[in-house]
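Summary for the steering committee. The consortium agreed at its last meeting that each partner would contribute one worked example illustrating the joint modelling workflow. Our contribution is presented below. We chose a case with several input lines so that the handling of multiple components could be demonstrated. No manual editing was applied between input and output; the record is shown as generated.
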Amino acid sequence: MNQISQRIEALLFTAGEAVPKTELQELTKTSEGELTAALQELEQHTQESGLTIIITATHVQLVTSPNVAGFLAQFNKDTNHELSKAALETLSLIAYRGPLVRFEIDAIRGVDSTRIIRQLFLRGLVRQLRMSSKAPQYDVTEEFLSHLGITTKHELPNFTELAAHNLS
Amino acid sequence: MNQISQRIEALLFTAGEAVPKTELQELTKTSEGELTAALQELEQHTQESGLTIIITATHVQLVTSPNVAGFLAQFNKDTNHELSKAALETLSLIAYRGPLVRFEIDAIRGVDSTRIIRQLFLRGLVRQLRMSSKAPQYDVTEEFLSHLGITTKHELPNFTELAAHNLS
Amino acid sequence: MHPAFPDVKIDQFEGPYDVLVELAKKQKVNLSEISLQKLTEPFLIYIQEHNIPPESVASFIIVASTLLLIKAREMLPQLKQEEEEEITDFTQRLQLYERYRKAGEHFGLQWGKAPLLPASFFAEGNKKATQAFSFPAGLLPEALADALKQKTASIPVIQPKAHLTQRGKSLTEILSLFQTRLTTSSILNFQESIHGISRQEQAVSFLAILEMARNQEVQLEQLEAFGTLVVHKI
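What follows is the complete predicted structure of the assembly.
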């Protein structure tokens, strides 16, 4: 691996949680394109490894690889991961169609989703992308992807079809 | 890498500290010879990476590689500066309202606090409490309290009032 | 998840509510022949007897209102054209919703089965900073208090949009109160019997005697407007 990829891997390891891409760029003094290339190389490197990276629109996180997920699951005694029906359908909308504002979620679900989005936010499964003037947009987090055992949204079932905004 | 090496890498990563070799053997159901071979392969794999493993007579630990030591050192240098306004704000939130998960801190501050929290963490002012699979919670450390000349958070000025979760 | 809602059981159809909506949309069931009251009654009884989360009630209301819309359209053909567009939108929205709901079900099955874990996931106890402790120069406890006060002061206070009033006696409670009183005397002066109680309970009391009159338990007599209201036991 090149130096930038190595530095990024070390930064992700010491962080212990998801790191904003903007911060990685700043710390490694790289452009957006250089970061993307470095992440690609890192991903390549972790192909046959016990670790991998989860990449969302805004963040990157170093996690254990799907290769060993089954093996590690036996040590994970925490089974409290039930999600309500409302939580699942809201996550599904945000995962496939996100980033999107609450109004769009309400419009498809046909009910006010404020409360359920807040719950998902506090559980770390969705995040607000814009916190300034405009209505905040929501997108799923690394935490969400990690619970499903995948490293990008594109691995979601039927992603291309369901992510298309004009469904027939 | 073979499966055993991958599993060991993931175990070291999730352990977050040095792991006894005997424990690794037990968890991966391997003999001493198999473990040694797997560690060798893992070492090979991390040759050009940002991480590496330290092997002692009894323990193994996943750490950042000497390749990036110089790069990482720069972040430890400027630690004795005064706190920025953002850092002070975040620290006060954690002190009075902690333990808090990052999302709660973000929600009150209205901005992403990842970086500030990590700075406070690296300076030993806050620590992470990890409760199984949930997002980590942050609280101030004992060293921090003792430097303020107090022994519990309750001795902070106006503690009862400011720690109340309902803002009036 | 809540237990499944009771199925619809009427002459024309037996099965889940949402299936009925599908059939009605495809005009396989003629809604004009169905009493909406019969349709919704078992559901309303069900939510009285069970503790149903609000989201589930909301999704039932969507189903019920769709039925109502389709039924109204059938009964008032002149509405048909105006409503046509809205119903198409509505149907499209429901289809869209259905696709994501199904996709979400898959999440539920996969959730936490083989998660990818973050660093130190299995670390014993609390993770402490490994680096040397470095206390900020000149930090005083008061500075922390000030920082938090300033931050919290900058957060706008949300004004409640709805007001909850303290719950008074219920209609059923007040009903039985009147019934008890009427066992000892056969005539009551309404104004006297509600003297001194809250306005909310006064209103409920009035509803209670109206209900009793409807059930022919009592007869009401009032000689002039705003005059004394006399309750006679029958």
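The longest helix of chain A spans residues 32-45. The radius of gyration of chain A is 17 Å.
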